[in-house]
Design goal:
The structure holds 2 protein chains of 2 kinds.
Chain A lengths: L4 H10 L6 H18 L34 H5 L5 E2 L2 E2 L7
Antiparallel strand pairs in A: 1-2
Helix pairs in contact in A: 1-2
Chain B lengths: L8 H10 L4 H19 L2 E4 L1 H16 L10 E5 L26 H8 L3 E6 L33 H8 L6 E4 L6 H7 L2 E4 L20 E5 L2 H11 L17 H4 L8 E5 L9 H16 L3 E5 L7 H16 L18 H12 L2 H14 L4 H22 L5 E5 L15 H6 L5 H6 L3 E9 L2 E8 L5 H14 L12
Parallel strand pairs in B: 2-3, 7-8, 7-9
Antiparallel strand pairs in B: 1-3, 4-6, 5-6, 5-10, 9-11, 10-11
Helix pairs in contact in B: 2-3, 7-16, 10-12, 10-13
The chains are: A mainly alpha, B alpha/beta.
């Protein structure tokens, strides 16, 4: 298992992570070793085995569709890096 | 007379009840211990002195009114993954360095309601991703038994704080061994309950199908006291389970019948250090002397638990951690050029190397063309591992083996190779994949370092688990030992 620097840059782009050039080489090396370890799974016969998504085989619980939350915007926005008039500010998206 | 900081929660509760000390005195004692000893250990990210003393005063007033419960006035520490209202919750990350939680986690809320005092928030591997507490943005934690060694992780701050007598107990979380492994490496009792037993509300998410809250304590009895307070369904966590919460404390002495203990051959593999195997076998012999029957069992797919975990957990983590976008909360880069630059640099700067590796592993295994080969395959093997446990529990009441292959390792010993670090969790990860409850209790020492015995029960078998651990602790004194420098 090996990964090229370009593959690593592609994965980083999908994950929205900036990596500098030193990190790219480091990640390529370590990701290859992790995926190499993970490749042990390929030798296991899993024909007909139902994939397991949840440890308790539980169904999603339902509740009545009622309003149970109150407005916490002001409180929550105290943690935001940049807000104005109750809005979260980001760089201009639409010119 | 046991020193306050060497006593158990049960012992301290009796001292509060008898009036020997007040909660304020107890809280001041531990705050003073933290002030003296934490600089050398780095267990705490935040010490909440004013809040703790206010809680202790309220607990003393509650006791004076005759309204104290079993935990009222006892101080503990919370892993810094649990939100506590109006306090910083960092999760060991630069990303959340300045995050002040606007609400309480269910675990914090329930313990607060029981009158428990929060001394502070403990250091941890960044976003709970690590087995040595070396991935924390706030620096590594040192093991009180030997400061050149790691305390384990990810709940390393909680473990070191209790082991050094800076708190009588602490909360933790366990996604692949993050309570049991540090408990083993620091000589504590570490309980990871059944998946769904304790609400995950307000606990920063890592891998949602594996994460579970639990406790690090000096005894199984203390674990029973805390579990009784935190267990139970919560509509805010739809995976928490509506199962009855037994009286765990009363159950400690119940069920004294002949135990059938399964000993998985896979737990005694080539990777297990001989001296650790000897200590664990001696603990099994103690159970035998108490009348238990030992049965060798097979877990034929257990050796696949590490590769399975390193697909499932990073996949879930890459999804969970996508919420950190530099917009609503968390770190934001300076002067972003556009929205993409804002996302990429905020995340690139806010996350440490191990977290980035896990996010990228998860992104890769979930990406188009690889999903079936990795993620689906891992979910199928997860099913096989779970079925192995179910088959074993048809024949035995509990499973026992080592918690870790070695005692605490040196700081820096495994940081260069992530796979070596991951293999440290080889005996604990299967339990998370299957959603089972597990506990680690101290069962010996190797060259002055503690060794952990792991006990595993069927789903919702915490009472049996705690009963078996308690039985061992009544016959032995490994759990009462303190590192000499902190006695």
């Amino acid at each position: 298992m090996s990964l090229t620097n370009d593959q690593v840059r592609g994965i980083a782009r999908l994950a929205r992570l900036s990596l500098d050039e030193a990190e790219v080489a480091e990640v390529a090396d370590k990701l290859a070793s992790i995926l190499g370890m993970v490749d042990q799974l390929q030798a296991t016969d899993t024909a007909g085995v139902v994939p397991m998504a949840h440890p308790l085989d539980a169904a999603q619980q339902l509740r009545a569709d009622e309003v149970i939350e109150t407005d916490h915007r002001e409180e929550y926005q105290r943690n935001a890096p940049l807000t104005e008039q109750g809005l979260y500010l980001v760089p201009r998206v639409v010119e | 007379m046991t020193a306050l900081h060497a006593d158990t929660l049960a012992g301290l509760a009796a001292r509060l009840a008898s009036g020997e000390c007040s909660s304020v005195e107890l809280t001041r004692h531990f705050l003073a211990r933290i002030a003296v000893h934490d600089a050398g250990l780095n267990c705490f990210v935040s010490v909440l002195e004013a809040r703790a003393l206010a809680q202790a005063e309220a607990a003393d007033r509650r006791r004076a009114r005759g309204e104290a419960g079993p935990l009222t006035g006892l101080p503990i520490a919370h892993k810094d993954i649990f939100c506590a209202r109006d306090t910083r919750t960092t999760c060991g990350s630069r990303m959340l360095e300045r995050f002040v939680s606007p609400y309480d986690a269910a675990v914090v809320e329930r313990l607060d309601a029981a009158g428990v005092v929060t001394l502070g928030k403990t250091n941890m591997d960044e976003f709970a991703m690590g087995s040595s507490n070396e991935t924390s943005y706030f620096g590594p934690v040192r093991n009180p038994w030997d400061p050149t060694r790691v305390p384990g992780g990810s709940s390393g701050g909680s473990a070191a704080a209790v082991a050094a007598g800076l708190a009588p107990a602490a909360t933790g979380t366990d996604t692949g061994g993050s309570i049991r492994q540090p408990a083993a490496l620091t000589g504590l009792t570490g309980l990871k309950p059944t998946y769904g037993r304790v609400s995950r509300w307000g606990m920063v998410a890592f891998a949602s199908s594996l994460d579970q809250a639990g406790t690090l304590t000096r005894s199984a009895e203390d674990a029973a006291l805390l579990l009784a307070a935190i267990a139970g369904a919560d509509r805010r966590d739809s995976t928490s389970v509506e199962a009855e919460v037994p009286d765990y404390h009363a159950a400690l002495d119940a069920g004294r019948g002949r135990l059938r203990i399964g000993v998985p051959r896979a737990f005694f593999d080539d990777g297990l250090e001989e001296a650790v195997a000897v200590a664990v076998r001696e603990a099994l012999a103690e159970y035998e002397r108490q009348g238990a029957e030992l049965v060798e069992v097979e877990l034929p797919n257990l050796h696949l638990s590490v590769p399975t975990y390193y697909v499932v957990a990073p996949a879930e983590a890459s999804s969970n951690l996508s919420r950190f976008d530099g917009v609503r909360f968390g770190h934001r880069c300076e002067a972003p050029q556009d929205l993409l630059d804002l996302y990429e640099r905020s995340r690139g700067e806010g996350f440490g190397a191990e977290v980035k590796r896990r996010i990228m592993t998860g992104t890769y295994v979930l990406s188009a063309g690889y999903y079936d080969a990795y993620y689906l395959k891992a979910q199928q093997v997860r099913q096989l591992i779970t079925a192995d446990f179910a088959r074993a529990f048809e024949r035995v009441d509990l499973l026992m083996g080592p918690t870790t292959p070695t005692p605490a390792f040196a700081l820096g010993a495994k940081t260069a190779d992530p796979v070596q670090m991951y293999l440290n969790d080889i005996y604990t990860i299967g339990v998370n994949l299957a959603g089972l409850p597990g506990i680690s209790i101290p069962c010996g020492e190797v060259a002055g370092l503690p060794v952990g015995l792991q006990i595993i029960a069927p789903h919702f078998g915490e009472a049996a688990l705690l009963g078996a651990a308690h039985r061992y602790q009544q016959a032995t004194d490994w759990h009462r030992r303190l590192p000499a420098a902190y006695a």
